[in-house]
């Protein structure tokens, strides 16, 4: 896998992480079958893709970017799907996470 493909795989893994994090809210404690199956499948795909990307990327950078994508995606979907508070401080913190993700990408030699 090329470094570019590894980064693309990592981004997709992060999107699946967002999917399972948000999916947890719909499982109602894993008592609802279809949301639970979709959440578990998203978890499996996310971790599998992360493992593939980490064959090329440094583990510290890859893991931090993966969790950052999941965190930002989950926070943004929380605003849309669950009507979570839309405050300047919340957006500033999301911006800091994005800045960290971009910074890690820029300083990683792959």
Automatic annotation (TrEMBL):
The keyword Metal-binding does not apply. Its main location: membrane. Keywords: Cell membrane, Membrane, Transmembrane, Transmembrane helix, Transport. It is a multi-pass membrane protein. It comes from the Bacteria. It is found in: Cell membrane. SUPFAM superfamilies: Multidrug resistance efflux transporter EmrE. Pfam families: Multi_Drug_Res (PF00893). The keyword Transport applies. The chain crosses the membrane at residues 33-51, 63-82, 88-107. Belongs to the drug/metabolite transporter (DMT) superfamily. Small multidrug resistance (SMR) (TC 2.A.7.1) family. Gdx/SugE subfamily. This is Guanidinium exporter. It comes from Rubrivirga litoralis.
């Amino acid at each position: 896998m090329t470094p570019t493909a590894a980064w693309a795989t990592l981004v997709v893994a992060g999107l699946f992480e967002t999917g399972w994090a948000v999916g947890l809210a719909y499982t109602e404690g894993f008592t609802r079958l279809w949301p639970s199956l979709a959440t578990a499948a998203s978890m499996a795909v996310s971790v599998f893709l992360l493992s593939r990307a980490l064959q090329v990327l440094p583990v510290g950078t890859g893991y931090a970017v993966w969790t950052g994508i999941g965190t930002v995606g989950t926070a943004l979907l929380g605003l849309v799907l669950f009507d979570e508070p839309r405050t300047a401080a919340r957006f500033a913190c999301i911006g800091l996470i994005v800045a960290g993700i971009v910074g890690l990408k820029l300083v990683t030699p792959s």
